Structures are given as C-alpha cells and as structure tokens.
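Recap slide: (Mediterranean fruit fly) hypothetical protein, sequence and predicted structure.
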Amino acid sequence: MRRLVPCVAYANPKRVYRWHTKRPNNEESIQHLLATGRAKIKEGTLIITAVDRSDSGAFFCTATNSEGSETLEVLLHRNHCQHTTHHTDGKSRQNSKLEHIRITSITKEDKGMYQCIVKNDLESTQGTERWHHNSFINSSNKL
C-alpha cells in the first residue's frame, strides 16, 4: 500500500520543506525510510511505498523560508488486514482467504469478473478485474 502525505505551504519567498518523526530511538525515521528506498519526498509530499504497521505514528512537515516556519503534524495509521476473500463471477474461490491469488495457464474458461474484498474491524475495500478476450480490463481501482 502506497501513501502520499502532502505538505503544502503558500509562501513568498519560496519555502523549503523538511519531514521528521518523533519516535523512540528514532526507529524508522524519515532518513531511514529515504535511505532504504521505502520513501521519497517530491515537492513537499512524502511518498511512502509499502506502508507497514510500524510506519503508524506522527509525521511532521516543517515549511521554512526567510520569514519564518510552520509545522504540520500528520498522523498515519496502518491497520492490519484481518480478512481477504476472492470471488469469480460472484462465487467464492477455493483458497480465497489468501492475500494474493495467482492464475497460471489462463484459458478461455477463466474469463469473468474477478473480485478481491479486504476487511478489518474499521473498514473494507474491494477491487475488481474483468478478463475477456485474452486481456484484463481494469474496471476499478487496484488494491
């Protein structure tokens, strides 16, 4: 799961952005995320790829210019996925509780609507793909 955390400040003169965290032992600091390639910063936006539960917590963005600075606090919560099901044409698939499914050696008989539903105690989301004429056509957001 990828997360974009924007930090926008309108200022003149132009501002410089700095992201940081306040974590025990500075574990999984912004610098660590950047150094390992799990995150990057683009025009003030913090982009975290493959968000993990350990990434949950407070992130701070400070925008600074010669006139002063302003700090924004953002709380990121990564909740554990508790239940994943896969369906084809509305019917539950065997082993549908797996986080991923892989279909190899696709044949014409595999055509249809594929759906993945992910749930936890707080929310749920879904993604669907339709396979038709030897290609997948995206019909909603991918998970």
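The chain has one helix and eleven strands.
The chain has two domains: 3-76, 83-137.
(End of recap.)
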